[in-house]
Specification:
Helix content: 10-25%
Radius of gyration: 15 Å
Strand order of the largest sheet: 2-3-4
Oligomer: single chain
Distance between the termini: 33 Å
Order of helices and strands: EHHEEEE
Number of helices: 2
């Protein structure tokens, strides 16, 4: 009996790094991970949407739907505290 070979999905990350300093990319990743998603790609897959609510003046995520249907609302300014920067994961595809 031949074993089924599972091909990696195009949406699976190839590597993961942890940041050492805050940046807009870290802020973006932090907001998605607080809501229970790996990143924006996984959010769009799970929620089956192309729309992510963002603040118009800086482009940060404004609102996300968690996996259980509840909402996360974010402020216009930075939300990622310095203590959480190195706990955030940045994925590369």
């Amino acid at each position: 009996m031949a074993a089924a070979v599972r091909m990696p999905s195009a949406n699976q990350p190839k590597s993961m790094t942890r940041p050492t300093r805050w940046s807009d990319v870290v802020e973006e990743a932090y907001r998605f991970q607080i809501a229970g998603y790996r990143d924006e790609i996984e959010y769009r897959e799970v929620q089956k949407t192309d729309h992510v609510d963002r603040w118009p003046h800086n482009g940060y995520v404004k609102k996300l739907v968690r996996r259980d249907g509840c909402f996360y609302y974010y402020n216009r300014t930075r939300e990622c505290p310095d203590k959480q920067i190195n706990k955030t994961k940045l994925y590369e595809y």
